[in-house]
Design brief:
The complex is a heterodimer.
Chain A lengths: L6 H6 L3 E5 L2 E6 L3 H10 L2 E4 L4 E6 L3 H8 L12 E7 L5 E11 L2 E6 L4 H11 L5 E4 L4 E7 L3 H9 L11 E3 L8 E3 L8 E7 H15 L5 E3 L1 H10 L34 H10 L4 E6 L11 E4 L2 E12 L4 E8 L9 E6 L2 E8 L26 H4 L3
Helix pairs in contact in A: 2-7, 5-6
Chain B lengths: L7 E2 L4 E5 L4 E5 L1 H7 L2 E5 L6 E2 L4 E7 L3 E5 L4 E6 L1 H5 L3 H4 L8 E5 L11 H12 L1
Antiparallel strand pairs in B: 1-2, 2-3, 3-9, 4-6, 5-8, 6-7, 8-9
The chains are: A alpha+beta, B alpha+beta.
Amino acid sequence: MNKTAFYDRHRQLGAKMTEFHGWEMPLYYTSIIEEHKAVREALGIFDVSHMAQVLVTGPDALKTLNELLVSDISQVGEGRACYTLMLNEAGGILDDLIVFRLGVEEFLVIVNCATHESDVAWLASHAQGKVTVTDISEGRCIIAVQGPQACRVLEQVLDARVTSLGRFQMAPIRTMGPDACIARTGYTGGDGFELFLPNQHGLRVWDLVLSHAKALGARPIGLGARDTLRVEAGLRLYGTDMDAATTPFDAGLGWTVAMNKASFMGKDVLVKQKQRGLARHFVGFELSQGPMPRHGCALHMDGRPVGTVTSGTFSQMLNRPIGMGYVEPAASPLGTVLTMTVRTQKYPVTIVKLPFWKGEINTLPSRTGPAAVGSTARPTMEKLP
Amino acid sequence: MEFPKELLYTKSHEWARRDAADTAIGITAHAQEELRDVVFIELPKIGKVVKQGEPAAVIESVKAAFDIYAPISGTVSRVNEAVAKTPQLINQNCYGTGWMFAITPSEPKEFAGLLSVDEYTKQLQAEAH
């Protein structure tokens, strides 16, 4: 089984380990609920090095990505990131990913670990013209630092003014090697950063964050809370909430699609689907009380099956069970009451707006903050406010 | 981890407290530790007839849902409404306020097949290896 550079740290911290798509990862250290609360109230640090880092470079890198991804990547400026989707010819989602524009002809693409190899093969086999696809995951790690204290702690640890990074902005960390960077991104719905680093720097940042922020209530966070946090934030999980049989419109991710692009993989199918209308909608729902909605639970309206649950959890912030899934259009308006069957019991659920919970982004520049990360090295940071 | 001497245990990590009136059922400290983060409990209805070794209740933690098996056959005589309302009681006090339901036994000879505290802790040690 694959192990990340943090494996020994996880064991020392007493993590309960689990297998996740071929990786031995922490499920939780103490308790999923405690870790969830720590991220919402203070700070959590996650090892997400199982996700893959792929560099796409060259004069035709932009053209290739614009053909393979649904978003208009030409609109993503240097030092910016974009959440987007990669489709097959039939408009089905192959993966959801984040593209970082490191330079004019240089992109860092972060893909899911389950689709790592197929994504790299897809990118490489569809690359057009002068473009190089390089998997740089080996020897590198990804750390997420998430929660309301993220700015404060990272400014101390990195000695840099990270608060000035806007959402989906990124900056290189020149002192930590080529392609080392920090971005105002995450998978929790709240404030936070992700760092893409060579292992030795990642280990140092991990230790520094935990030692600096222990008094603030910072904790290491496992995959268990990573999942409950993303559900509460209404964020889809590839392979669970969507797959190759799902289009971006089905998954409620039409906002990522630039239909005005002349062409992109899967566009023809999406055009037809848009004309025909959707057969199902991706929705969020909540229960006033009852069991946790789980993947595969059936949803009924007036005794008729109208949909299926894809994700669910018990929301710590709302103090009630929440879920997401697909339902017929007639069952999708906000406020519609459906019936969820769990084992032999039936429970009423109400369609509500996604996300269930949304955090605030800290925008106050620190009073004592030193210069921004890498500000002397690359032009991207000088554009920052 | 604490395992009270006066209780009887099952291989599936339930405990049973045999009293004159009925037998209260819950889960052990080991099971509580494994489940963590209990968020929902489905209890049987009073009057339900349960058979030894068959599912009688469900505990859901954030991780997953787990069946709770009846340690003995009989009729459900009482249920702990407090634990249904506040599932965290299982994590806080699994032998006390976190008890789940009680059974009026129909086959008292079944008690002989349950584990003593020594037998149960031996099983736990074996499982750990």
